[in-house]
Design goal:
The protein has 795 residues and is mainly β. The chain contains ten helices and 40 strands. The strands form seven sheets. It has a 22-stranded antiparallel barrel. A five-stranded mixed β-sheet has the order 2-7-8-5-6. Strands 3-4 form a two-stranded antiparallel ribbon. A hairpin with a 2-residue loop joins β16 and β17. The longest helix is centred in the first third of the chain and has 49 residues. The N and C termini lie far apart (56 Å).
Length: 795
């Protein structure tokens, strides 16, 4: 339910009342947080005092006192905690943890990322059933993630987190994420579907993706991985960390990490008399520091803080090619895109506290702050004509793009600043009523995020030979000058009831949003306020037939809010969904086999989609839709099962999907990929079949592994046309289909010593050329054949 207010005097008092109410909510949360901190601090000081007095007493008696944190007394525990993560950072925790979920969920560990040296999140998530991806740049810099049928554009309808903290630049105010955590520096990734989503949000109609950064090691550890590959690509990932005792003050841990990647890119820009052509690569650098303290108190506590920074400089573009030019050379770029570049900076921090108040009560609290700045300076139009139309229609505009005719083109500076911050606290309480064991989770979160757009356009004049003869600089703020802001208060409650063989999980989530939108462009000044109540919830179950077979299923109501401008100015509604699933899991340890199969059905109301070509712009409701299908995943190691003395693993994941728009979408903006949809049309970029299968051989010193990925062809717009003609009958290169394709990746490594190995491999081994996307502007290729070699050392 939502309300919107225009900017007029009659509503001033309403807004004041609104702010008073929301300020009250913030004050209540602030008091709760202060109470939590005060309680934890007083508990710590009291326990330190008690422990110090005990130590003095024992020393006077001449006894050697050992604390639980002493390494000699706790060697086995330390071994078991090498992969310890602070509660709240994970949503599944491990592959074994996924077995206990009342719904579908997958955990991919380090091997799934490093085995094939993946740095493209698309390649990694292809291994997760029920996840759909629209490629864009070939490197995975700007992923478009859909979980069970949500709009894939910029992952705007998927909750993205890193270590359990929201990481999209402004998940409420501008959810289209032009940022994705770098998968190559991660130690794992989790994908949650089904009814368990209600602990997270705000976008839980499809699923949740949680990136897991490198944890602080339990003992001194160093790691360096460096590689060199085609297109002069260099990657280096290194970290060093340790955890040690602080005499009687507990344990302290730290991690210092760095990641760097540079490539010249696999595309090449056309040359002109004043431009010799150029590379299309990028450079990304990511330092990170984590600190941890476990005070020596009677109640176990852990305080952890992180500061991470990411900078990206990429010569990326929205511009694709014509069909004919793509067939000749899919890795060509027209010279008019020579100025295209995106420059970003991302700061991400959190401070988290965890305490075991009793054997049955845990409390975790998190403060977090992220800031994201970016300016994507990119080609906007040519001779005043939309780029997709120029590609499909041809003529003079296309000649200007190629540098073969005189004309003008505009380059827009999409300059934006985002920030988010928040405080979250959740408690887990375990108790028993009769024969039923309960795990009750209660939590709340205050979150605020904001986006500021301050954009302009420069106009370039070009001679007939492609030479730039003039540049008219635009005035900053004249193309766009808007601000959107959201304050959100969330409350959630979940109870897991364990009856023995049967476990039932019931949950509820409520979010209250206050939204604000300002248009500060000259002649368009306006301000709007609105609020929104979002309610979601559901239940799931697991039933154990025996130690090997487990049934699971559930139903939940999902919700995803529109951004402030859409909600306030255009009165767009929140997206809601009813999702159901039923599945079976099987595990047989002796044969090293595990598998899962699930059927799912999701019905969407007021499906939210983005109006613009690049999946930006304003949210729009596209009506009703449904998606259903089956997901399969299996793992088996023939070497372990048959006691061969070496490993021979096999993995397979498969998703079969039927998607259908259930209402016409003629009123949508023609720029939206959902424009022109009719009842019965397939949802764009949701393929019918997706398959990932891998196998390998692993010996003491040598291993070789393969991974094959198949993606079925799909329509790129809801009009489901194969022609490059939009709903108004105008030529448009975004319309049509993307190709079915099969990609094979092969890797091998040889262990030189216990702590060092060399590795190498090839990706897209058959050098398959295919159209991976037609958005933002025309056919775009997937990455070509890529070969690499490197060295990995641990110490």
């Amino acid at each position: 339910m939502s309300r919107a207010y225009s900017n007029n005097q009659l509503e001033v008092q309403n807004r004041k009342d609104h702010y008073v109410f929301f300020s009250f909510l913030k004050a209540v949360l602030g008091i709760m947080l202060c109470v939590t901190i005060t309680f934890a601090t007083s508990n710590f000081l009291f326990m330190v005092k008690v422990d110090a007095e005990m130590m003095e007493t024992e020393e006077e008696k001449g006894e050697d006192v050992k604390f639980a944190s002493d390494g000699d007394a706790n060697t086995q525990e330390d071994e078991n905690r090498k992969e310890y993560r602070m509660p709240g950072m994970t949503i599944i925790g491990s592959a074994e943890g996924a077995r206990d979920l009342p719904g579908s969920g997958q955990y991919l560990g380090t091997d799934a990322i490093r085995q094939q040296s993946y740095a493209d999140i698309n390649r990694v998530l292809r291994q997760v059933p029920g996840v759909y991806l629209r490629e864009e740049d070939g490197f995975g810099l700007f992923p478009n993630i859909s979980v069970r049928g949500t709009d894939p554009g910029r992952s705007g309808r998927t909750t993205l987190m890193e270590d359990g903290v929201l990481t999209a630049p402004a998940p409420y105010s501008d959810p289209a994420a032009y940022y994705s955590p770098t998968i190559a520096r991660m130690s794992g990734i989790e994908v949650l579907k089904g009814s368990s989503q209600i602990l997270y949000g705000p976008h839980i109609t499809g699923g949740v993706v949680n990136y897991l950064s490198t944890p602080i090691p339990e003992s001194r550890r160093g790691y360096v991985r460096t590689m060199y590959g085609r297109q002069n690509e260099i990657r280096t990932h290194a970290y060093f960390g340790d955890t040690f005792d602080l005499a009687g003050w507990g344990r302290f841990g730290y991690l210092v990490e760095g990641y760097h990647r540079h490539t010249e890119g696999f595309k090449e820009i056309d040359a002109t008399p004043d431009f010799r052509g150029g590379d299309t690569g990028f450079t990304v650098a990511e330092p990170m520091v984590k600190l941890m303290w476990e005070p020596n108190t009677a109640a176990f506590q852990r305080i952890e803080g992180r500061f991470g920074y990411t900078t990206l400089d990429a010569d990326e573009t929205y511009l694709g090619l014509t069909e004919e030019d793509f067939k000749r050379n899919p890795f060509r770029r027209y010279q008019a895109s020579r100025f295209d570049n995106i420059d970003t900076e991302h700061y991400r921090t959190y401070l988290r506290h965890y305490i075991e108040l009793t054997d049955d009560l845990d409390l975790r609290s998190t403060l977090y702050y992220n800031k994201f700045d970016r300016n994507w300076y990119k080609l906007q139009d040519v001779n005043g004509i939309n780029l997709s139309r120029a590609l499909a229609e041809g003529g003079t505009a296309l000649d200007v793009l190629r540098g073969e005719a005189a004309g003008t083109f505009r380059v827009r500076a999409n300059n934006r600043t985002y920030y988010l911050w928040g405080a979250e606290s959740a408690a887990d309480y375990r108790f028993t009523t009769g024969a039923i064991d309960h795990t009750l989770t209660i939590g709340g979160r205050y979150h605020q995020d904001q986006v500021n757009r301050f954009q302009w356009q420069d106009t370039f004049t070009q001679a007939a030979n492609g030479t730039i003869t003039d540049r008219a600089a635009g005035i900053p703020g004249t193309q766009d000058n808007r601000k959107a802001k959201t304050d959100a208060f969330a409350f959630y409650l979940q109870d897991r009831l364990d009856f023995g063989q049967l476990a039932i999980t019931l949950g509820f989530r409520h979010e209250y949003l206050q939204q604000r939108f300002e248009d500060r462009r000259v002649g368009s000044e306006s301000t709007g306020f609105g609020d929104m109540h979002l309610v979601s919830g559901g239940g799931g179950f697991t039933y154990d037939f025996d130690d090997q077979w487990r049934m699971f299923g559930g139903v939940h109501r999902g919700v995803s809010p529109p951004a402030p401008q859409a909600s306030i100015q255009q009165r767009q509604k929140e997206e809601t969904s009813i999702g159901t699933e039923l599945g079976m899991r099987y595990t047989h340890a002796k044969t090293a086999f595990s598998g899962e199969v699930a059927g799912f059905f999701t019905h969407f109301n007021d499906l939210l989609v983005r109006e613009s070509i690049g999946a930006g712009g304003v949210d729009e409701n596209a009506g009703r839709a449904r998606i259903y299908g089956a997901e399969l995943s299996m793992q088996w190691d023939a070497g372990i099962a048959n006691d061969w003395g070496f490993r021979n693993p096999y993995t397979i994941t498969y998703t079969f999907t039927e998607s259908e728009i259930r209402s016409d979408t003629p009123s949508l903006d023609a720029e939206s990929i959902f424009a022109g949809g009719r009842k019965g049309s397939r949802i764009p970029y949701i393929p019918k079949h997706v398959l990932a299968a891998g196998t390998g051989l692993g010996f003491d010193r040598f291993s070789i592994n393969t991974m094959g990925i198949y993606v079925h062809k799909t329509f790129t717009t809801a009009s489901n046309t194969r022609e490059q003609i939009n709903i108004d009958g105008v030529p448009d290169a975004r319309y049509g289909m993307v190709d079915s394709h099969f990609l094979l990746d092969v890797s091998a490594d040889y262990r030189l010593t216990k702590n060092a190995k060399i590795f190498g491999g090839i990706q897209n081994a058959f050098d398959r050329e295919y159209i991976a996307s037609r958005h933002p502007h025309g056919p775009r290729p997937g990455a070509p054949f890529f070969a690499y070699t490197g060295l990995e050392v641990t110490f």
